[in-house]
């Protein structure tokens, strides 16, 4: 049938009814037909609205971006609390505990981990949005300690008004992300919807004895967050055209980082409890962990890693209404110290999309856990607080007294976290076996010589303060090159590599020393740079 005949057939029915047959809320002829001579019911498309190769602006087509589009947790809780409880003994984890995924036992040694997650675009590019939707959905299985194996896609899309190219790119992005995670897409479901939505129902597997829930946190545990936060603030700023390109790139990079490696470390190190930080914000998800574990928590605002630009945007009021709804949900148990700014709480309630894992581990295992996370490539994992035995189940937001605020500066993507950076008590800065240098050697409490006093001063100077130990180590390398101290450089190159500082960062610091030391420093570094290669190779072979 020709397009003209098809329109005549469709419109004759619509005009006879007085209503558009593809949207009975509208009369016929509708405004679109009168303004643009396009009849969507006859299969015609607004192709001019999406030019070939045109720049996508998905976030401009939705009211709330990303996980901010979810139903507020307080409203959701009221609805779920009215539903009958499911008492089947095979359901090990259900909706009653507000955990990340359900766990259903199929045999003595096998459980299914199942979840579904759908939300609106958090970025403008459709392919990237598809990837984020997949990573976000997979994260719920990783948070339980499970291994995802299959997925079903769910998409709501205005196919008549936007054409099919963006829909293809979204699904392709999701498929590529699933392939990276070694998860098979087995099918899906689509809805012709005026607002774009995309996500996946994911099924994973786990040993019933290895399930990690949000209810196992214990007093004395430390809290580790594996990704920086701020995706909601940045997405909201982007919707208003006020987010910088660098901030948007950083947010996209964070949202497209798979949580698999972090989950594997968490399982290996025996985490007591875990949740992934998504639509309810950091404090909303911690609220659920505290409530289900019957404990309290202390969060160190100045230890929480933030995405580039987050603090600036939030302090200028660029926080979506979803953060306020999360505040309403969790504020009853949250107390903030006087020195914590109000915008900090906005960020902590900010809904995240494809955020990191938040898990608790025994304090005595912390150094080993951080080392494992660093080796697994989770470079921005940070210790952000601890679990307390507060009988009231309160969450205290404060500033750690010895911790520089990591979130206020741009994070180095390849830098490994160390204990001194992450908000727990600093360890001894100078190991007893360390060779003498500007840091000093073995120190004794009874040694009161001028030399020992100088060594103590250097030990304190190189410890964490307004600058963290990573920054100080890079500064020391630059100074060693500038003053051409070969023993100093050798020691600090070894130390820097052991702390997870990359060779690229070391070389850049060294050339800062050359810039201030001049030609002699350049000749010195050209000779000593071979030492960096040797030490780096030795460190790699010893792993």
Overview in brief:
41% of the residues lie in helices and 15% in strands.
Structure, explained:
The chain has 543 residues and is an alpha+beta fold. It folds into three domains: 3-44, no CATH class; 61-421, PurM-like C-terminal domain (Phosphoribosyl-aminoimidazole Synthetase, Chain A, domain 2); 452-542, Up-down Bundle (AhpD-like), CATH 1.20.1290.10. Helix content is 41%, strand content 15%. The chain contains 19 helices and 13 strands. The chain has helices at residues 3-17, 31-36, 73-81, 126-143, 159-162, 165-180, 231-239, 245-255, 260-268, 281-293, 310-315, 321-330, 342-349, 366-375, 450-461, 469-482, 486-498, 503-517, 519-542; strands spanning 91-93, 102-107, 110-119, 147-157, 184-192, 197-206, 221-225, 273-276, 296-300, 334-336, 357-362, 382-388, 395-398. A hairpin with an 8-residue loop joins strand 1 (91-93) and strand 2 (102-107). The longest helix has 24 residues, at 519-542. The N and C termini lie far apart (70 Å).
């Amino acid at each position: 049938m020709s397009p003209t005949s098809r329109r005549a057939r469709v419109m004759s029915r619509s005009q006879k009814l007085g209503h558009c047959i593809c949207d009975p809320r509208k009369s016929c002829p509708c405004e679109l037909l009168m303004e643009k001579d396009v009849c969507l019911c006859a299969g015609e498309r607004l192709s001019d609205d999406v030019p070939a190769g045109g720049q996508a602006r998905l976030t401009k087509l939705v009211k709330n971006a990303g996980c901010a589009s979810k139903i507020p947790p307080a409203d959701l809780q009221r609805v779920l609390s009215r539903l009958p409880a499911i008492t089947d003994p095979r359901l090990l984890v259900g909706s009653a505990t507000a955990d990340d995924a359900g766990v259903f036992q199929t045999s003595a040694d096998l459980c299914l981990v199942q979840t579904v997650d759908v939300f609106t675009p958090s970025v403008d590019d459709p392919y990237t949005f598809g990837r984020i939707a997949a990573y976000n959905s997979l994260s719920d299985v990783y948070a339980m300690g499970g291994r995802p194996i299959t997925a079903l896609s769910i998409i709501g899309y205005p196919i008549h008004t936007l054409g099919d190219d963006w829909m293809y790119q979204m699904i392709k992005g999701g498929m590529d992300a699933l392939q990276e995670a070694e998860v098979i897409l087995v099918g899906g479901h689509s809805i012709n919807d005026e607002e774009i939505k995309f996500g996946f129902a994911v099924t994973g597997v786990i040993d019933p004895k290895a399930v990690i829930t949000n209810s196992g946190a214990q007093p004395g545990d430390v809290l580790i967050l594996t990704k920086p936060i701020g995706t909601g603030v940045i997405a909201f700023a982007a919707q208003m055209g006020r987010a910088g390109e660098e901030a948007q790139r950083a947010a996209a990079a964070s949202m497209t980082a798979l949580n698999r490696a972090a989950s594997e470390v968490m399982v290996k190190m025996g985490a007591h409890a875990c949740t992934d930080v998504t639509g309810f914000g950091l404090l909303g998800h911690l609220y659920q962990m505290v409530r289900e574990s019957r404990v309290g928590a202390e969060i160190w605002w100045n230890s929480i890693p933030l995405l580039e630009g987050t603090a600036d945007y939030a302090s200028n009021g660029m926080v979506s209404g979803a953060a306020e709804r999360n505040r309403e949900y969790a504020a009853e148990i949250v107390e903030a110290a006087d020195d914590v700014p109000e915008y900090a709480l906005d960020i902590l309630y900010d809904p995240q999309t494809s955020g990191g894992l938040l898990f608790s581990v025994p304090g005595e295992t912390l150094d080993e856990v951080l080392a494992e996370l660093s080796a697994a490539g989770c470079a921005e994992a940070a210790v952000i607080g601890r679990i307390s035995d507060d009988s009231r189940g309160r969450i205290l937001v404060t500033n750690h007294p010895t911790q520089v605020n990591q979130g206020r500066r741009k994070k180095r993507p390849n830098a490994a976290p160390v204990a001194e950076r992450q908000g727990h008590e600093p360890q001894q800065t100078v190991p007893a076996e360390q060779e003498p240098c500007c840091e000093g050697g073995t120190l004794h409490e009874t040694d009161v010589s001028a030399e020992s006093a100088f060594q103590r001063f250097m030990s304190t100077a190189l410890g964490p303060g307004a600058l963290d130990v990573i920054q100080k180590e890079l500064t020391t390398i630059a100074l060693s090159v500038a003053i051409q101290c070969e023993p100093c450089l050798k020691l600090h190159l070894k130390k820097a590599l052991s702390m997870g500082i990359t060779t690229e960062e070391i070389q850049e610091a060294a050339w800062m020393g050359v810039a201030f030391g001049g030609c002699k420093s350049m000749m010195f570094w050209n000779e000593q740079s071979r030492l960096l290669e040797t030490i780096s190779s030795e460190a790699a072979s010893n792993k």
